[in-house]
Amino acid sequence: MWRANTGTKSNLLNLTFMKTPAYITITKTLRTILVVLLALIPAVRAMADWQLNGPVTPPGIGGTYWSLALGTSYPPLPCVPLLFAEGSVYEIVGSPGNYAYDDTGNPDHTQSERMTTESEGGGSGGDDPQPMIDYSTNLWISLDTHTNESDGTTYFFTIHNCQTGSVYELISCTNVVAPMDTNHWISEFVGLANSTNLSAYVPMGGKKDYNFFRAHLWTDFNYGVPTNGQIFIQSLTNNIYPVVNGVTNHLMPFCSNWFVLNPRPTNLYTINLGYDASDGGMTNSIINTNPPQQVIRFAGFSKTITNICISSNYITGFSVAGWPALQSVDAWHCISNLNVDVKNCPELRRTCFEAIQGVSTYGITNVLDYSGCPHIAEIRAADNRFPNVIVTNGAGPEVWHLCIHDNNQVTQLPADFNFSVYPSLRELWVWDNQFSKPLALSNANSTNLASVEIFNNRFPSADFTGQTNIDHILIDGNAPLTNLIVSGCTKLKQLDASGDGLSTASVDLILSDLDAMGIFDDGANNPFVKLGSGTNATPSLDGMRRVSNLLNKGWDVTIHLPPAGTPNISAVAVPNISSNTATITWTTDIASDSTVYYGTSYSGNSASYVSFTDPASVTSHSVTLTGLTAATNYYFFVRSTSGAYTGTSGDYQFTTRGGPGIYFVNTSSTIKMEVTVTGSPTITWLWGDGSATVGGSQATHTFSSNTTSYVVINPPTSLLAFGVQCQTTYDTLLSSVNGLTNYPNLRGLYLYLTALGDVSLAGCTNLTYAAMAGCTNASTNTIDAWFNDLALAQTNIAHITGNFSKCGDPTASFFCPAKTSYASTNSQSVLTNKGWTLYLLP
Known about the structure:
The chain is mainly β. Helix content is 6%, strand content 31%. It has a 14-stranded mixed beta sheet, with helices on one face. Strands 46-43-48-50-52-53-54 form a 7-stranded mixed beta sheet, with helices on one face.
């Protein structure tokens, strides 16, 4: 694409020094005018006054026009304004084809003014104003043509009388007599002359209706950078290999160590001058990696470029302000980058200006201002030295990643930085700063927060209420922090608040909230909570219950430990349960008393429970509770006191025996059971060994012998199906199942490959699916009874609605062993007519 082409005319530039200027002016109302401009000659010879005739109607293209703005003699400036509608044009007597434009006293052409030869330099006789063009020292410019393009009119010039190998610049101004300084004149084009004529182009865009143009030798961007789409790169090397629009190019300098990328004939969209994907990138970013090209300056303006990668280079400044198409900037580890300007980039999504971590002498020093960037989403700017980050004029609502940690001059960032202006925030990484304003990032401020890493600051409080997506909060090292709220953070797995100043009430609430979320260690999520060190308080006894609960769930818990001499409770069990009694046992490491707190509803407040205390000082504890209600779930915890110190257990449950349920007898040591329910009923699995599992539609249990277990669903109308978990071999084995009629809405029964011998379907009115194949111990009489009992139960049902099945089976299907007799033939026909499909399997 952009390749050097030595010896031929190209768009690549070389650096030289120049002196002589040339001028031209154009108007948008007359877009096809050719102007020849005279360069100043160092020693302009004195000219006599000359006569003017008019005003006259100018001939348009073909005439040569002279400015009278600065004097009355031979044109004092080699700038010739052309045919502005509001001015007057005079013919120069004795010089056919030469005209003077009346801009005297009105050089910015804001109003029209007539001129007389007496007052404005007219006279009798004198030398004709011949164009004093010296082709060895002087430049002149011609306006060749123009095109109406998508961004407005583009003018195409030729700079004449160039020196081959020199670099020339077009600059413009709206006032012909404006001083030649950067406050009035701006750069429009820079190009390398490969012959005596240099083609130049200037997109007018939003410029005024008229401009004066001057050509001169280029030395540096003293008049700013061209806005015509040219991109200039200065490097420490004489060969660079930018990846442009996805294609690697070999560029050679147009002068010294300057290179240029031109937007013609192909628009520029992506530029990669250094990128190794160290800090990621947007999905539409440049995926090609590219070594850094030792860039020290980057200049230009583009209406088409969307992505720039300039990481690990040596730029000291970076300005892309106002670039309309720019979406992503990666300037990672640009250790010399001191100033950046990204304001008013309406499509900007991502910037990465991260410097070197831990090095205080690197990084941006000016304000990082995203004003006018409404779509900015990723702000990656760690390890810098900027005094503030500004999001105004539409910026802020789409920011999801804010990374400004380790701002080395920490006292510069505002202590009261407002994080609530980022409603889409997902990742907040601002550690190692000095932020000291209360942090409010509840669900009301931001609904997507997932990662918070804000350690080593000075936040006095932090509220993350209702952040249901948050995974971890690292807020350690905030000594003033006395209150931290994580209520409703249902996915929070890692919390580090060590080294803070949390009160007992705050510590207890944090532990309670984490416990209530019910997150277990699954071997991959590594849940932990750290509330030790600093001035964090020790949890209360109820808080210690939560600590035990979290430990039982596999959490790593760090707290200020209770004092020495506090009993340590372990091995809590309920070995004996009846319909109205339960025996609870535990052990302690030191002799202490025995207290059980229990109730039928859960409470985090121990005062809400009934308690029973045995004052005997022992290490093996056993307390029997009496007067309990049958088939009722109880919550409990235990405490033991030795002297002034009390230890507490976590929370446990048991369910008393009795009441309606489905009873089953296991013949395999491990069984895997399952129920299907509607709504949110209480599910209690009561195992034959005295233990219980509260909650969960699936339950697995291992026994040392064959026992009778049962499951209770409350309310009973919630149960839709009962059986074992899906299996393809004889894994879960049962001998009998009873009590199905306790659940009137039972629709499905899955007892496949259980070797079952005893179960009754009498009264199963709503049953629409039964997988009983593999019940190898069922006799022919038992299987006949299945069909006869079911047909009788569904006497009043004309046609079943087959709305339930399991493990991939079809609905309205009945699978059973093919051990039937004539005794059930009629019932099988009845069931088939009601919509059942019978599968009699070997």
